[in-house]
Amino acid sequence: MEKPTSASPNAPVNSSTGNRSGVDNSRGDTHLGEHEHKRRWVGIFLLITWVIALAAWVMVVVAQAFIAATITGGNEIIRVFWFSTIIQLLVLLRVMQEMLNHPTSKYSYGYGTQIALLCVVAVAFSVLGADGTIYGAKRALQVTGAGMIVTSVIDLLWILFFTHPASSSRRGSNTGSRAETGNRGETY
Known about the structure:
Keywords: Membrane, Transmembrane, Transmembrane helix. This protein has about 190 residues and is mainly alpha-helical. Helices cover about 65% and strands about 0% of the residues.
């Protein structure tokens, strides 16, 4: 017998949930609620870290421009670190694109590997930039170093977030091992 999919007056009523859909969702509602709760926290995590990283990036850009324009020999100090700033902008844009394009995805981000790799490059250059500027005598050099440290920490968080392994608990009720379920939770 085919189960009704809409709430029709002829559909049987589930006594435990009062649901007229003909499908017992007493366990499913809780399970969907857990996924919705996790999805909301993931969105909040990405949004908060993105805003902090954007503020730090703007601080670095302004400080680097100030250094290049006013400090004698400033271009020699920060010339390579502009590359880090550009890579960080690409990371910020890609994370923003993922947040906007995948608000309903269940922890699967299409460009997660690309974001993680860009973050690795940005962290490498940012750490070098922070080391070269944070101990400077001028305040603008110290601000550049501090901003690079903040973006590096957030990039490290994003590397961990976007490279997390797929787990069967997030993909559904599949409880098999990796050998039984494959890399992404598909059953063979």
